[in-house]
Design goal:
This protein has 4 helices and 28 strands. It is mainly β. The N terminus is likely disordered.
Length: 405
């Protein structure tokens, strides 16, 4: 495996990992295979975290293979058996199911490439459903009517496609998280245009503002990027707070770009005209907001990943209100969207993952278990007819949640 591929794989698994250094691998058949194959890029025990389901371990191994891990075919199954037995998923809360007035149904599609790790979904204006195959270096397009799935291979190898947005011409834009680039795909021709970032970094989430300018976050580089599609010029801005780690983004009715700061307990904003920043402190120092949605009244909603809360920020007054997420403090709320001013989000740390509905008028929760586990829903999108789209990383698919009107 190349040094570049090692770095990509380490980054890919890091978000579900916690240090476990100083321990020895458990004894048993397959231990030698794990020592030989799973410590090339990183110490295995430093990346196991809370373990994985059998399906999750299968996907993780496929991810490794996609990134060039030199794992012989006859060693895959015994290694998988060892990992499943030695590192089962544990310590995750049960997904809470709360009854309520809304009725929904689920439809699922599997990504054709095993271990592609669908990261972000996108509901396009023509009714198609898209996803980033982060570890297969593809963008996937699902036709929900026929069920046909087409994968578009990208130009730069191992570019790590991450965020997704559609422009007014139907082009699909994405962030190359490990390729340090912004990409544009023309779905009609399959042509890919790339825009390298001025400094090396990790382009993450992206949105268009009212003038058609593309904005994006660079989490670990601590930058907010601005790309003019007409000229290809990219300008990088630095938030006021060091190590803020800007993450999810949303646009309010006044055209202000809002973003959450996953490295601290803050929400930030930048004015596209003046390029001035503003930061809003959240009351709990342990808060780590990860994704963001804005309702028609310009109220900012955020998923507090670290504490298991749904948060509400009034950017006019700075007032913050929070509610515990149904599955508890370890539920890891993540992808979030506003649909007809009702908040829909995912709990990515529960087993199974859940879809959660919160009505701001009644302040009541309703939730459902995602069929197949959902594991792990990192981001969400809204279809043109107001349904909820999920990407499911470790079960290698996308899920459409149809909301009964």
């Amino acid at each position: 495996m190349s040094r570049r591929s090692c770095a990509i794989l380490t980054a890919a698994l890091l978000c579900a990992a916690y240090p476990a250094l100083g321990q020895q691998l458990p004894d048993g058949p397959g231990k030698e295979l794990a020592q030989a194959n799973c410590n090339i890029c990183h110490a295995l025990l430093s990346r196991v975290g809370a373990g994985y389901t059998p399906e999750g371990w299968n996907t993780v191994l496929q991810m490794m293979i996609n990134q060039g891990a030199p794992l012989p075919a006859d060693q895959i199954e015994p290694l998988k058996v060892y990992l499943i037995r030695s590192f089962p998923e544990k310590g995750k809360p049960a997904g809470a199911v709360i009854p309520g007035p809304a009725k929904i149904s689920f439809r699922e599609w599997q990504a054709p490439t095993p271990g592609s790790r669908p990261h972000d979904p996108l509901a396009a204006s023509d009714g198609s459903l898209w996803y980033t195959g982060q570890l297969a270096n593809v963008l996937g397009r699902v036709d929900p009517n026929s069920g046909e799935i087409r994968e578009f291979h990208l130009k730069t190898a191992h570019s790590g496609p991450h965020g997704l947005k559609e422009d007014s011409d139907g082009n699909i834009w994405y962030t190359g998280n490990t390729g340090s680039l912004i990409g544009k795909l023309d779905p009609k021709t399959g042509a890919v245009t790339e825009y390298p970032t001025p400094e090396t970094g990790d382009p993450h989430t992206l949105i268009f503002d009212d003038a058609g300018i593309l904005w994006f976050t660079m989490q670990n580089a601590n930058r907010i990027g601005r790309l003019d599609p007409k000229t290809g010029e990219i300008k990088l801005l630095t938030p006021p707070t060091a190590n803020a780690r800007p993450y999810g983004m949303a646009l309010n009715s006044k055209g202000i770009v809002f973003f959450v700061e996953f490295g601290t307990n803050q929400v930030g904003s930048v004015d596209p005209k003046t390029l001035e920043f503003h930061e809003y402190k959240l009351p709990d120092p342990a808060s780590r907001p990860r994704r963001i949605a804005i309702t028609s009244d310009d109220i900012v909603w955020y998923s507090d990943y670290s504490r298991g809360y749904l948060g509400r920020l009034d950017s006019t007054t700075g007032k913050v209100t929070e509610w515990p997420s149904p599955s508890g403090p370890k539920s890891e709320p993540y992808g979030i969207s506003a649909i007809s001013d009702v908040i829909w989000y995912s709990e990515s740390g529960s087993t199974p993952n859940t879809v959660v509905r919160f009505d701001p008028r009644t302040e009541k929760f309703q939730s459902w278990a995602i069929p197949g586990g959902g594991n792990i829903v990192r981001n969400t999108s809204v279809t043109r007819d107001g349904n909820f789209l999920l990407a499911n990383s470790l079960v290698n698919g996308v899920t459409l949640v149809t909301i009964e009107k």
